């Protein structure tokens, strides 16, 4: 009874995502709501979405960042971007969202900031597959590489939570 999804979020779930054979990539609604509440709590103005799938959590974050806020979304499949964009427009948040259609490692390498408020990244545990990614599992390999990069980045404090498929909270260090 604690979930209160915004109307376009429910539409993404029912209209597009549940029909898709890759629906396991959808962020858990409890995880999305936790991220929205954390973003509100800290007044987040920038978020990074790694693998936006059909756009549920990208839209979720765009709905809670301020009007001047920015959601950077990394996605490699233009089919999912095409599914998501009408929902972004319907919700009136398309100007807050920048989609990079390429591997997340490339996008992250080009970003020049680490968010002053914390940054959240869902799906970082990927059902445990990131522990020992198969040679042909590029998604798990990319998440493993990202997790290792975050772990060694001395500019941030880091927490990985086992909510949904994993959630990373990275906070810029000021010391």
Sum up the structure in keywords.
175 residues; alpha/beta; 3-stranded parallel beta sheet; 3-stranded antiparallel beta sheet; 6 helices; globular; O-methyltransferase activity; methyltransferase; SAM-dependent_MTases_sf
Can you give a write-up of this model?
By secondary structure, the protein is an alpha/beta fold. The chain has helices at 7-17, 29-41, 56-64, 78-91, 104-110, 138-152; strands spanning 46-50, 70-75, 97-101, 119-122, 156-161, 167-172. The protein is globular and about 40 Å long.
Summarize the structure.
By secondary structure, the chain is of the alpha/beta class. The chain has helices at residues 7-17, 29-41, 56-64, 78-91, 104-110, 138-152; strands at 46-50, 70-75, 97-101, 119-122, 156-161, 167-172.
Instruction: Order the strands across the largest sheet as they lie in space.
Output: 1-2-3
Taken from the alpha-carbon principal axes, the silhouette is globular
User: How many strand elements?
Assistant: 6
Cα Rg: 15 Å
Total helical elements: 6
Structural class: alpha/beta
Rounded mean pLDDT score: 77
What are the segments in which pLDDT stays under 50 over at least 5 consecutive residues?
Answer: 112-118
SSE order, one letter for each helix or strand: HHEHEHEHEHEE
**What's the story with the biggest beta sheet?**
3 strands, parallel
Tell me which oligomeric state these chains represent.
single chain
Helix content: 25-40%
Strand content: 15-25%
Distance between the termini: 41 Å
